[in-house]
Amino acid sequence: MISFIRTDSENADFRKLVALLDEELAQRDGSDHSFYAQFNKVDSIKNVVVAFLHDTPLACGAFKPFDIEAVEIKRMYVMEEERGKGLAGKVLTALEYWAKELGYQKSVLETGIRQPEAIALYKKMGYSVTPNYGQYIGIENSVCFEKQGL
User: Fold this and answer.
1) CA–CA separation, 28 vs 31, rounded Å?
2) Cα 24–Cα 107–Cα 109 angle in degrees, nearest 5
3) Which ranges constitute the DSSP H helices of the chain?
4) pTM for the whole structure
5) Is 31 helix (H, G, I), strand (E, B) or coil?
6) CA gap 100, 144 in Å, rounded
């Protein structure tokens, strides 16, 4: 049975999963990866969810405040051998529920055009494509999403 813990970015299992995520993104994004890496530091993220099967970490995600009403979803990752089982959607739902508990009403996120699985997940989970925000304005590889009413 899959269990979920709420933690922060100091969690060793989260950091291991994020290292795997960064390796995969470096392969997918190539030379573009250094641009994105600067916005994906995990220092001081207070809201992290890690999914486990027994003691084995399988997936993770995080959020940080975006503005007074919204959080930004960050660092979503599922171990390759666990993909296609609905785990990413469960992590995302856990993050949204936690954000709602904290009084947030919306979430935003950015993903890359070279991540079709992520794009499909976010659309399936009720996210709508929006104009690129903040540091992603004008970045052709980025696709930004938002979801109202967590």
Assistant:
1) 9
2) 30
3) 12-29, 33-37, 87-101, 116-124
4) 0.92
5) helix
6) 20
Distances (CA, A) of 59 to 87, 92, 105, 114, 140: 7, 10, 24, 20, 28
Task: Say if CB 65 and CB 106 are below 8 A apart.
Answer: no
Q: Give the residue-averaged pLDDT of 10-23.
A: 94
For 2, residues 6+ apart whose C-beta sits below 8 A from its C-beta are 51, 52, 53, 58, 87, 90
Among the listed residues 88, 12, 87, the one whose alpha carbon sits nearest the alpha carbon of residue 55 = 12
Structure tokens at 140: 């052709």
99 Cβ partners below 8 Å, 6+ apart? Answer: 47, 63, 71, 107, 150
Residue 22 has pLDDT above 90, yes or no: no
Instruction: Decide which of 135 and 123 is more confident.
Output: 123
Show the tokens assigned to 35. 């641009």
**How confident is the model over 109-133, as pLDDT tens digits?**
999 998 999 999 999 999 999 999 9
